[in-house]
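Amino acids appear as letters; backbone shape is given numerically. Here is one record.
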Amino acid sequence: MRPLKPFAYFEPRQLAEACELLAQQGEGARLLAGGTDLLVRMKKGEIQPSSLVNLKRIPGLDGIQPTPENGLSIGALTSISTLEQSSAVRAKWPVLARAAGVLGSPSIRNLATLGGNIGRASPASDMAAPLMVLAARASVEGPGGKREIPLESLFAGPGKTTLKPGEVIVSFRVPEMPPRSGAAYLKLGRREGMDLALVGVAVFLNLPAGEGKPAEARIALASVAPMPVRARKAEEELLSGPMTEDRVRKAALAAVSDASPVSDLRASASYRKEMIRVLTTRAVEEARQKAEGGIVS
């Protein structure tokens, strides 16, 4: 660990103040939420921010609330452990609770926030892929006002988002899952629940009764591209006809072609490609079983 270089520190009490500070401080400014990733990277010398803007003093940025459309609103400062343990999340969107439960250690989950995990724009984010297949949207606020962004449109590259200068993620809106829907998230890591994903696969399926093929199919991949990505070719394959074993196999192979994994100290690109195929097959089957059983997951 290296000694921290001097930086300015701010504790705004209102969101508008935080947005103004972020815009004024420029590219060297960083938002501080849980700090589980930011502070470690600062100590390692990987980043050297000129200023930190702490969001923890701003009221109303955490908590889980139902929306008028029977969906869910999750505040950006909601801790991962709160998401994991929420009865509302477990009842209707348990795939989010499951993903939260495999993110880091319990101590990390107690501090880490959903907004921090998504705003970090890590390719290996455990929360991004499940939120993407659930068609979640991020609510952001900045000098130009408020807007909503489909989660998949929030990422621009490793550690980069499409947020404008001064914009802050305020919350995430997750729509209600329709009847006969199922979702799954499978993660491969060196140590279960304690490591970044080598490969992560999230799948959502809606299978209306009496129909042989899905009405909706979404697949998202983590840790196999410069940012979390949708597996569009795999989705198209699943939507092209009945959910036969052969179609699922072709969809899993298509998911491999939707990814661009690299080799690093943790795993080779070829190993990651094979695991994309394996995990996609398993996640599709798990989502299908839950959809056909009438269990939302």
User: Anything to note?
Assistant: The first strand starts at residue 8 and ends at 10. The CA atoms of residues 2 and 43 lie 5 Å apart.
